[in-house]
Design brief:
Strand order of the largest sheet: 1-2-3-4-5-6-8-7
Number of helices: 6
Mean pLDDT: 94
Low-confidence stretches: none
Structural class: alpha+beta
Radius of gyration: 16 Å
Helix content: 25-40%
Length: 184
Amino acid sequence: MIILETERLLIRDHIEEDLDDLFDLISRPFEMRYIMDLFVVEPKGAKENLAVAMRDIGKRNRKHYFFAIIEKETSKYVGEIGFTVLDENPSGKLLELGYFTKREFWDRGLTTEAAAICVDYAFKELNTWKITTGCIKENIASERIMIKLGFHKEGELRNHQSVDQEWKDRVIYGFLKSEYQMEA
């Protein structure tokens, strides 16, 4: 089991007991509005999502690193963060980073804190050569996290993702291991 720790957070592989908290988060239309493919209305959907998150735990050639974010002081579930391995070869892995949290934890720097330790873990422990991420252009708070972490804007996809039956632009960011090593 992977457990990462910051001053205020535990970021860890999922356990079965995360089901109710996960359902609470991914059944919230406001928090999930930019990632409706994960939105659920019944606990069964959350159970399937949790099964996917737990499927790769302990596997040698792990492709999914999906973690729960837990606030240390209160033991409250904050949200989700993780990576998907998009490609891998002898020179390293290409990962895609994603995160989403409960609204009551927004604007406290917790997602940035969780993402920073995950990026550190990816570059130091997973033989990662690049991490990519992105968000809907109007999601300024998410984009700000990417910039704070040292990601560089690589492009903008016009009218790329449907949100509330409207096509929205998406920004794409990347972080190379060589850039990370320069900043460290």
